[in-house]
Amino acid sequence: MRSGIILMYNCSGPEFSKLRQIFAMLRMRMRPVSPEQYHVSLEKLAQGKGEDAPAPESVPEAIPEAMLVFCGLNQALLHQVLEVIRLAKLPPIPLKAVLTETNREWDTLQLREELLKEQAAIWEQQEKKDD
Protein backbone atom coordinates (compact mmCIF):
# COMPACT_ATOMS: atom_id res chain seq x y z
CA MET A 1 0.00 0.00 0.00
CA ARG A 2 1.37 3.39 -0.99
CA SER A 3 1.41 6.10 1.65
CA GLY A 4 -1.07 8.85 2.10
CA ILE A 5 -4.58 7.58 1.52
CA ILE A 6 -7.52 9.12 3.31
CA LEU A 7 -10.83 7.30 3.48
CA MET A 8 -13.54 9.95 3.46
CA TYR A 9 -17.11 9.58 4.70
CA ASN A 10 -19.74 12.30 4.17
CA CYS A 11 -17.14 14.79 2.92
CA SER A 12 -18.57 15.36 -0.54
CA GLY A 13 -20.58 18.56 -0.12
CA PRO A 14 -19.38 22.04 -1.10
CA GLU A 15 -18.46 22.77 2.53
CA PHE A 16 -15.72 20.15 2.19
CA SER A 17 -14.24 21.43 -1.08
CA LYS A 18 -11.54 23.25 0.91
CA LEU A 19 -10.68 19.98 2.67
CA ARG A 20 -10.33 18.19 -0.67
CA GLN A 21 -8.13 21.06 -1.92
CA ILE A 22 -5.91 20.72 1.15
CA PHE A 23 -5.49 16.99 0.62
CA ALA A 24 -4.72 17.54 -3.07
CA MET A 25 -2.16 20.23 -2.20
CA LEU A 26 -0.49 17.80 0.24
CA ARG A 27 -0.56 15.14 -2.51
CA MET A 28 -2.80 12.91 -0.43
CA ARG A 29 -4.99 10.42 -2.22
CA MET A 30 -8.64 10.59 -1.25
CA ARG A 31 -11.02 7.68 -1.40
CA PRO A 32 -14.70 8.44 -0.74
CA VAL A 33 -16.48 5.50 0.89
CA SER A 34 -20.16 4.86 0.14
CA PRO A 35 -22.63 2.91 2.30
CA GLU A 36 -22.39 0.02 -0.20
CA GLN A 37 -18.75 -0.39 0.92
CA TYR A 38 -19.29 -0.21 4.69
CA HIS A 39 -18.99 -4.02 5.02
CA VAL A 40 -15.48 -4.06 3.47
CA SER A 41 -12.52 -4.00 5.87
CA LEU A 42 -10.73 -0.69 6.31
CA GLU A 43 -7.50 -2.22 5.04
CA LYS A 44 -9.14 -3.35 1.79
CA LEU A 45 -10.78 0.05 1.33
CA ALA A 46 -7.37 1.70 1.79
CA GLN A 47 -5.90 -0.64 -0.82
CA GLY A 48 -8.67 0.23 -3.26
CA LYS A 49 -10.13 -3.26 -3.03
CA GLY A 50 -13.61 -4.30 -2.08
CA GLU A 51 -15.48 -2.55 -4.89
CA ASP A 52 -16.17 -5.98 -6.33
CA ALA A 53 -17.02 -7.57 -2.97
CA PRO A 54 -20.61 -8.76 -2.90
CA ALA A 55 -22.75 -6.06 -1.33
CA PRO A 56 -24.82 -7.00 1.69
CA GLU A 57 -28.51 -7.78 1.13
CA SER A 58 -29.50 -4.44 2.58
CA VAL A 59 -27.28 -1.41 2.28
CA PRO A 60 -26.90 0.42 5.60
CA GLU A 61 -27.87 4.05 5.88
CA ALA A 62 -25.02 6.50 5.46
CA ILE A 63 -23.39 7.40 8.74
CA PRO A 64 -24.71 10.81 9.81
CA GLU A 65 -21.39 12.50 10.60
CA ALA A 66 -18.25 13.19 8.60
CA MET A 67 -15.43 10.73 9.25
CA LEU A 68 -11.83 10.45 8.07
CA VAL A 69 -9.52 7.45 8.26
CA PHE A 70 -5.84 8.21 7.66
CA CYS A 71 -4.00 5.28 6.08
CA GLY A 72 -0.25 4.95 5.65
CA LEU A 73 0.75 8.39 6.93
CA ASN A 74 3.84 8.78 9.07
CA GLN A 75 3.53 10.77 12.32
CA ALA A 76 4.99 13.97 10.85
CA LEU A 77 2.65 13.96 7.86
CA LEU A 78 -0.37 13.10 10.01
CA HIS A 79 0.48 15.97 12.36
CA GLN A 80 0.88 18.33 9.38
CA VAL A 81 -2.47 17.28 7.89
CA LEU A 82 -4.33 17.69 11.20
CA GLU A 83 -2.73 21.09 11.79
CA VAL A 84 -3.67 22.34 8.30
CA ILE A 85 -7.26 21.11 8.83
CA ARG A 86 -7.38 22.94 12.18
CA LEU A 87 -6.01 26.19 10.75
CA ALA A 88 -8.36 26.07 7.74
CA LYS A 89 -11.39 26.40 10.06
CA LEU A 90 -13.34 23.71 8.20
CA PRO A 91 -16.68 22.30 9.33
CA PRO A 92 -16.09 19.97 12.28
CA ILE A 93 -15.14 16.41 11.43
CA PRO A 94 -16.05 14.67 14.67
CA LEU A 95 -14.71 11.22 13.81
CA LYS A 96 -11.09 10.71 12.82
CA ALA A 97 -8.99 7.58 13.00
CA VAL A 98 -5.68 6.15 11.85
CA LEU A 99 -5.52 2.72 10.23
CA THR A 100 -3.72 0.44 12.72
CA GLU A 101 -2.96 -3.24 13.20
CA THR A 102 -5.88 -3.34 15.65
CA ASN A 103 -8.55 -1.82 13.41
CA ARG A 104 -7.42 -2.82 9.89
CA GLU A 105 -9.86 -5.77 9.73
CA TRP A 106 -12.77 -3.74 11.06
CA ASP A 107 -15.51 -2.50 8.79
CA THR A 108 -16.77 1.06 8.73
CA LEU A 109 -19.62 0.58 11.19
CA GLN A 110 -17.38 -1.16 13.73
CA LEU A 111 -14.85 1.69 13.54
CA ARG A 112 -17.58 4.30 13.92
CA GLU A 113 -18.97 2.51 16.97
CA GLU A 114 -15.52 2.43 18.61
CA LEU A 115 -14.89 6.11 17.83
CA LEU A 116 -18.26 7.09 19.30
CA LYS A 117 -17.49 5.10 22.49
CA GLU A 118 -14.09 6.81 22.71
CA GLN A 119 -15.66 10.22 22.18
CA ALA A 120 -18.26 9.57 24.90
CA ALA A 121 -15.53 8.49 27.34
CA ILE A 122 -13.54 11.67 26.64
CA TRP A 123 -16.62 13.88 27.15
CA GLU A 124 -17.37 12.07 30.40
CA GLN A 125 -13.82 12.68 31.66
CA GLN A 126 -14.03 16.37 30.70
CA GLU A 127 -17.33 16.74 32.55
CA LYS A 128 -15.78 15.21 35.68
CA LYS A 129 -12.88 17.69 35.43
CA ASP A 130 -15.29 20.60 35.08
CA ASP A 131 -17.23 19.62 38.24
Structure description:
With 131 residues, the chain is α/β, with parallel strands linked by helices. The chain has helices spanning 17-25, 42-46, 75-87, 108-130; strands at 5-9, 29-32, 67-71, 95-98. It starts with a strand and ends with a helix. It is 38% helix and 14% strand. The protein is globular.
What's the arrangement of secondary structure elements?
Layout: E1 5-9, H1 17-25, E2 29-32, H2 42-46, E3 67-71, H3 75-87, E4 95-98, H4 108-130
Parallel strand pairs: 1-2, 3-4
Antiparallel strand pairs: 1-3
Summarize the structure in short.
With 131 residues, the chain is α/β, with parallel strands linked by helices. It has helices at 17-25, 42-46, 75-87, 108-130, and strands spanning 5-9, 29-32, 67-71, 95-98.
Index terms:
single chain; 131 residues; alpha/beta; 4 helices; 4 strands; globular
Largest sheet: 4 strands, mixed
Please give the order of strands in the largest beta sheet.
2-1-3-4
- Indicate the radius of gyration in whole angstroms: 15 Å
| Average predicted local confidence, pLDDT | 88
Structural class by helix and strand composition: alpha/beta
SS field, number of helical segments: 4
Percentage of β-strand residues: 5-15%
Number of structural domains? 1
Order of helices and strands: EHEHEHEH
Helical amount: 25-40%
Q: Report the count of strand segments.
A: 4
Low-confidence stretches: none
